[in-house]
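Objective 1b. Sequence-to-structure analysis of Putative tricarboxylic transport membrane protein.
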Amino acid sequence: MTETSHETPAPTTAPTTTPAIDRGQLGLAGFLALLGGYTVYDATTLDVGFADPVGPRVFPYVIGAVLLLLAVLLVVATLRGSRPEADDGEDIDLDTPADWLTVAKLVGVLVFTIATVGVLGWAISGALLFAGAAWALGSTTLVRDVLVGTVMSVGSWYGFYVGLGIPLSPGLLDGIL
């Protein structure tokens, strides 16, 4: 008579590794906490009129408190091992270097706008800003870009001036707009 052993093999357990804590998320949480704390502190320094029941402090208190709450929630989630997922929908090639020429063109257009908005006015500078940004990003339809930029800048000028009561510089078009 032979005996057969019916021993079950010992279960093998995979070594448990604790996920690495994402220090970037903790850094973001720290930044949110600093920003929220400063917002709450800054709200305490605002002068409140006696006739205003709500006062100017309410919104900074709410925003600061929300930022502090988000910081705490992000720390808890990070310490529990939550990690952001990569976006599969991105259609960019991470191996392609940055196009610094385009960045330089955009910076140049923006600096030109800042330098000339007082003299030329928002309507003209805004139109040139739109057309210049479109050109820097590869548009080849200069006439259309200038026309669209003109409509948008004149429309936004009237929106600020008439709709919000905020006068933007008319520049060369003073008396025309």
